[in-house]
């Protein structure tokens, strides 16, 4: 297996981006990524384009080839990858394997989603289908927040966490979002505001949920051999990748306290990277709802089962704590353009590992130069974990 | 790069399949493929699922995870791949690279599409978007047959081919479709019938166009190391893969006589396989419209530019001729469930290379045991070429 490095990253501003069309939004991320890598678009042999909602919440049914043309990538091999909210990570894995196989020297993974062109009710309907459509959504009317509400209720009942604990995730992530100029929601909030926000699916309230966002992120990777030709100051290496799936039917799962797919994907990635979670300097985890972040701490092995919310109470997930999580604002405040999210995590970790976040006051101190991204699709239907090492 | 072999294949019957739901249709292809490979679904570590129209012409927005669960693949890594009508080949390439990288030992590529649940007019609208939506479809109303009609007219004007020549493609492919129990259209047709069929986009008539079909195909691949553990009688090796893209905007192309993406993808695949087109025993090419098959002969190097239709007149593309093409009926008669087509080509070539098509009277005699699949997305927007060797 060839060693693979991240050599360039770029991100658009996240938010409601009716000021740009699909290709323009992608270009906003792509241009800085090739500049960062010091290459030309023509050097890119393969593009894996992560997007879930083509033709559904964006009018382009074939977004990959249109965006590729706008970026000067015409001629390259192209595929669109979809794994629901993990589409960005799926595209990163596809690009990674293209290079790791030895066939491709330079590849791009671009994550993209434009979700704000259609009505909120239409967007909600589509997100509601991110479970087992025919059975749970269509027959029982379960919306996407409802799935996570089941987990939140079960977790609170089992381990004694409270609605205030869930709110602490939102407060932390909004704090970092307020320090991130690319974030969709750049304002701090308080526990009281979260508790007083409208109930979406009890016990989850509006401020327990991530926003519906537009955004794009571009990651350029290259083989170790190619790196010798290029002038890359600080390559960030892909140390481990893990991937797993779970039953599509929530009703078939034995318990609602965590995601088996997260556990499996993380174990694979740790094994490949030959590390333990204690060695990580920071992590980006999939906080589409506040409860999801707490369960991720546990599924990823940052603490024992049922103890995630206690670490959070102690401030251990902030910069200076045991393991800072989502210091870019996470899905919760940076935003969640679903096809872009996985690449956005890798963008943030690359910047952090290169120690380039200090001008925003968000630089995590490095001990081992190791970081982890955890990206889920659906309600744990898909999970991708990536470990990076500088 | 690890050597990769096809160890099992399975295909559903193609056609209007309102008798089964999405997961059942996939299972119809998957079950024989694992039996053919002599493995259990649990042996499959990664699934690349090719499908273009999730949520558009099939109600499941996340078809991959639902189909995977029905097939007993829950737990495996899963991604859905989309490259328009080349989605099946895109999934095969993703699965190939997973194994070629050395990370995965056994992977599946499943191609699927269920296009006949929605109205024909809705299906037509979606297929019309398989160009550059905002410009050519939305502003000029160009439908998908209209794009190919431009190519047909230009080709006929330049090289002297006639409408009868186009019809010969349909006649040949329907002949082989009539011999293939899995084909959507299992009846022979005559040149006169093609010429008398209703005009869709002049000079293309109804019988110049492939049907809109439902279908699924499953391909199981394994690494050379894994093959030693398994009892595989006749592995079929992936000798070469090629991939390329073209401008999304038809209006920007310099001429309408062939597809640059086909030429580039084929050259890459030949180079990797270290062969010339003369060595091929047979090919499956992307005949969504009759003109597309003739241009493919030339783009793939089976003959010089402008001579494809002459070979066809001579009967050289039939069994016993210079290079038999689409002896399963092709997209034209076997049908074109767009996410399934690329995998369907690989299914047919595997059966042919294993010399298992004689009971249907369609076995191609083998000289070099080399075969090629050519799968396009859009109007040459994407192209994937795969060379297989027994």
Can you describe this structure?
The structure is a homodimer of 390-residue chains. With 390 residues, chain A is of the alpha/beta class. Chain A has 14 helices and 11 strands. In chain A, strand 5 and strand 6 form a beta hairpin. In chain A, helix 1 packs across helix 2, helix 3 packs across helix 14 and helix 7 crosses helix 11. The first copy, chain A, is globular, with a radius of gyration of 19 Å. Chain A starts with a strand and ends with a strand. The model of chain A has no long low-confidence stretch (mean pLDDT 95). At the A-B interface, helix 2, strand 3, helix 3, strand 8 and helix 10 of A face helix 2, strand 3, helix 3, strand 8 and helix 10 of B. Strand 3 of chain A pairs antiparallel with strand 3 of chain B, so a sheet runs across the interface.
Any idea what the CATH architecture of the domain at 4-118 and 212-230 in chain A is?
A: 3-Layer(aba) Sandwich
Largest interface: A-B, 62 and 62 residues
In angstroms, what separates the terminal alpha carbons of chain A?
Answer: 19 Å
Shape of chain A, please?
Answer: globular
Describe the SSE topology.
2 copies of one chain form a homodimer.
Chain A: E1 4-11, H1 22-37, E2 46-50, H2 63-70, E3 77-82, H3 87-100, E4 106-113, H4 120-128, H5 133-137, H6 144-159, H7 163-177, H8 191-196, E5 199-201, E6 204-205, E7 215-223, H9 224-229, E8 236-245, H10 260-273, E9 282-284, H11 290-299, H12 308-313, H13 330-334, H14 341-353, E10 370-377, E11 382-389
Parallel strand pairs in A: 2-3, 2-4, 9-10
Antiparallel strand pairs in A: 1-7, 1-8, 4-7, 5-6, 8-11, 10-11
Helix pairs in contact in A: 1-2, 3-14, 7-11
